[in-house]
Design brief:
Strand content: 15-25%
Strand order of the largest sheet: 3-2-1-4-5-6-7
Number of domains: 2
CATH superfamily of the largest domain: Glycogen Phosphorylase B
Radius of gyration: 22 Å
CATH class of the largest domain: Alpha Beta
Structural class: alpha/beta
Largest sheet: 7 strands, parallel
Number of helices: 18
Oligomer: single chain
CATH architecture of the largest domain: 3-Layer(aba) Sandwich
């Protein structure tokens, strides 16, 4: 029985972490011929969900009170001189893992240490070039390229970027299709819930709502989202809603300031919530404003809920799903054309409904859970 260590940089409620968690739930529920554990560099909102699935180790020491830190230091002088990371590494060595799956390109700082576990390392890549530049350093990415025995890409665009920009052998890269949005498939739209949610934020019940979801940063194009909203500020029936991020983050604060300085009365920000589908269900259009997004899970969720999708060309994998039939692909960062497509969808209910139905049909056909899980198991079973 192969013993596998899955490594996640944190347990935040974001696409790559959620996708890994979903694969691990299936791995546990379907009782495959594997045992596995999870290593988290940092914690987060879905930390407890990971703990339900498998034993969880923490690379970094959790934040503690000053009193507890002093006690631990005192105990450490008596019992151990090892750092928390070294203690974790020693515990991992005892498990005698056969394979390591490192989720995302953000773990290059700890791969040299994990190499001491003496087993192959597979890096599961969810990022394109902008994400690689943003979320890791050249040194740490070199660690990933050097120490990984093989790679898994979340989409064809990611695989192509690894080949063209980082000269990784195509034969070393597998493509793993994203899973169907689990809760979105069974989600039942509730008009009363939508009305209540709109009332909560002071949005008219009959408003046409353009939604965006994701972390609040430049790569996600929140500035573009705001500029599109500014262009439509005179259309009093059109509102914009951004869901995601944390109000303690610098970028979140900056874009809130932008929103205020632009005098936008039609834009609402809401930090991450535990029920994002209730919000997505209230959207009339889903706008992917990202400058770059490999293959956003939220696109699949929006399509499952029959929402037409607007995205940019040359901005990642969303366009590969949207094509010409379940939304619009707009020239890269073209604000005026985006505005035009939003107005077109607002004015054409039949087109919105048609695109929404096609989007759901495509999700069901292209992201069959059994097929994706079969590929996942094949990757785990390979000899590296």
């Amino acid at each position: 029985m192969k013993n596998i260590l899955f490594v996640s940089h944190d347990a935040n409620r974001a696409g790559a972490q959620i996708l890994l968690l979903r694969f691990l739930r299936l791995l546990k529920d379907r009782k495959q011929d594997f045992t596995f554990s999870i290593l988290l560099k940092d914690g987060g909102l879905i930390e407890e969900d990971f703990k339900v699935v498998a034993p969880v180790y923490f690379w970094k020491q959790k934040v503690q009170s000053r009193k507890r830190i002093l006690i631990n230091k005192f105990i450490g002088k008596i019992t151990s001189t090892k750092s928390p990371e070294n203690q974790t590494l020693e515990s991992l060595k005892e498990q005698k893992f056969d394979l390591i799956i490192s989720n995302t390109i953000t773990n290059g700082d700890i791969l040299p240490a994990l190499k001491e576990l003496n087993c192959p390392i597979i890096t599961y890549v969810h990022e394109l070039e902008m994400g690689i530049q943003q979320y890791t350093t050249p040194e740490y990415f070199r660690n990933i390229v050097k120490l990984s025995n093989a790679f898994v890409a979340c989409g064809e665009a990611v695989k192509l970027n690894l080949i063209e920009n980082h000269h990784i052998d195509a034969d070393l890269i597998s493509v793993l299709p994203s899973l169907l949005p689990e809760t979105a498939l069974s989600y039942m739209a509730d008009s009363d819930k939508t009305i209540k949610l709109k009332n909560q934020y002071g949005i008219p019940e009959d408003a046409f709502l353009v939604g965006g979801i994701g972390t609040v940063d430049l790569r996600k194009g929140v500035d573009i989202f705001l500029q599109v909203a500014k262009k439509l500020n005179n259309h009093k029936e059109i509102y914009f809603f951004w869901l995601g991020g944390q109000n303690t983050e610098t970028d979140y604060k900056i874009f809130q300031i932008d929103n205020n300085r632009l005098d936008l009365e039609n834009v609402t920000f809401q930090t991450s919530v535990s029920n994002p589908l209730d919000y997505m269900a209230s959207f009339d259009v889903f706008f992917v404003s990202s400058r770059e997004d490999p293959y956003p899970l939220v696109v699949l969720e929006a399509a499952t809920l029959q929402k037409p999708i607007i995205c940019f060309d040359k901005a990642g994998g969303a366009k590969d799903f949207v094509e010409q039939d379940c939304g619009f692909i707009v020239d890269y960062l073209d604000i005026d054309k985006t505005v035009g497509k939003i107005v077109e969808l607002k004015d054409n209910t039949a087109l919105r409904q048609q695109m929404g139905k096609i989007g759901r049909k495509k999700v069901l056909e292209r992201h069959n859970q059994d097929n994706a899980f079969k590929t996942f198991v094949e990757i785990l079973n390979k000899e590296y």
